[in-house]
Amino acid sequence: MKLLHFSSALLLALCVSSFASAEGWGTIKGKFVVDGKVAEPEALVITKDKEVCTKTKLFDESLLVGADGGLKNVCVWVSLGRRDPQPPVHPDYEKTAEETVVVDNLACAYVPHVAVVRPSQKVEFKNSDPIAHNFKVDGFANNPFNTLVPAGGSFEHQFTSEERVPMVAACAIHPWMIGYIVVKDSPYVAVSAEDGSFEIKNMPAGEWKFQFWHTSGGYLGEVKMGGKAEKDRKGEYEVTVEDGKTTDLGVITVPADILKKK
């Protein structure tokens, strides 16, 4: 009886494993473009440590649009319901599951402006400036912290839980400094580049929902994909990922009037 039970359990495990990998893997990509005019990014008012913080011209990074309308810093992640299982993880992502993600201070700005991390990874909060900064990070699922980092110093932190939306990172010493940290259990996350483009490789094939979120305005509740206008207050949109293929969503148009500064 025990042997039969073990064999049945093994068979079930093999079937589940086969099912998880049988659908294969694909890639999705696209490009976010703003439809309409938005204001030029404002120069930040530097009130402290000007000898360091004015080495580069600092602008408000919450809404950055390229010359061709490309929208930077759109966060794209696979969206799951509370009871939905996590998607299978491609071996390439398993290799990076414990890599350290670096968030730096460079001339009084967070680099990168939007960082992506998994709970299995540590974050090195680094200060490459010759002056002190502090990292004040607030979330919902993770305990907030406010840590001083001296010039040239760093400290490590590990977020234990996924966050529904990106967390805000700020510096109380230099109040114009704002950054974001995306913490997701799934590795299937991307942040759009300067030209608005993004790509997520090795996504399990199948039907998936993705959420679109931007640093100006939050969830992108209105978009146009493939020439079709779509609306969802949580910014969730269905995408089919095909085995061995790249699903190109093309230009994803975002109305300028939903991009409001917070």
TrEMBL record:
Residues 1-22 form the signal peptide. InterPro entries: CarboxyPept-like_regulatory, Cupredoxin. Gene3D superfamilies: Cupredoxins - blue copper proteins. It comes from the Bacteria. The keyword Signal applies. The keyword Manganese does not apply. Keywords: Signal. This is Methylamine utilization protein. It comes from Blastopirellula marina. The lineage of its organism: Bacteria, Pseudomonadati, Planctomycetota, Planctomycetia, Pirellulales.
